[in-house]
Design a protein that fits this description.
Largest sheet: 3 strands, antiparallel
Helix content: 40-55%
Distance between the termini: 74 Å
Order of helices and strands: EEEHHHHHHHH
Strand order of the largest sheet: 1-2-3
């Protein structure tokens, strides 16, 4: 979380909850029924994940503008509501996973995208995904030559000579061709 620029969160413990028989709530091990998250609770969680204190998150979620009441409300949400706490933990884990990019996950995601594109007949997208996998894996090297010298200040012969060098270095199997003067179309008309 710190690498996302967020403050470290208070250590929270996950509470095991089971769905109620009617599926409209959750029940804890003591048999207490908890309602699904409401919009204020969801907003509280979003604000808290942004790095706000529980007090500030409660104020921004619209519980109250009174600082003391917001402090109590934030504490209740974090410490006494397992639905809020569990959702906060789940979202925190998702944020941490999203912020971690490594070669294996990147290549795996590109592979999955390629396979999905192939399965749906989108060959261009599949090829693009595969090329990106190759680039990420270091199979392709993108080389560019940057010419620092201004071409306007070079004599024509030097430009031609340098172009020939670049062509030979980068495309050694080009067949030489004779340049023929273009036909002036205006004379035929």
């Amino acid at each position: 979380m710190e690498q996302l620029g967020l403050q470290p969160m208070k250590d929270l413990e996950y509470t095991h909850l089971e769905p109620t028989d009617d599926g409209k709530g959750m029940v804890d091990s003591d048999g207490k029924i908890w309602q699904p998250l409401n919009s204020k609770q969801k907003r509280f969680i979003r604000e808290y994940l942004k790095g706000e204190s529980a007090t500030q998150a409660a104020i921004k979620a619209g519980y109250t503008k009174n600082r003391n009441a917001a402090k109590r409300q934030g504490s209740v949400l974090l410490n006494h509501n397992p639905v809020v706490r569990n959702h906060l933990i789940d979202q925190s884990i998702k944020l941490q996973e999203r912020s971690q990019v490594n070669m294996d996950s990147h290549l795996s995601a590109l592979y999955d995208l390629r396979e999905e594109a192939k399965d749906t007949g989108q060959l261009s997208a599949a090829i693009t995904a595969e090329v990106h996998r190759g680039k990420a894996g270091g199979l392709y090297v993108d080389r560019r030559e940057v010419i620092q010298q201004q071409i306007q200040s070079m004599p024509k012969e030097e430009i031609i000579q340098r172009l020939e060098q670049l062509i030979q270095a980068n495309f050694p199997k080009i067949i030489e061709a004779q340049v023929i003067q273009p036909i002036d179309q205006s004379k035929d008309q």
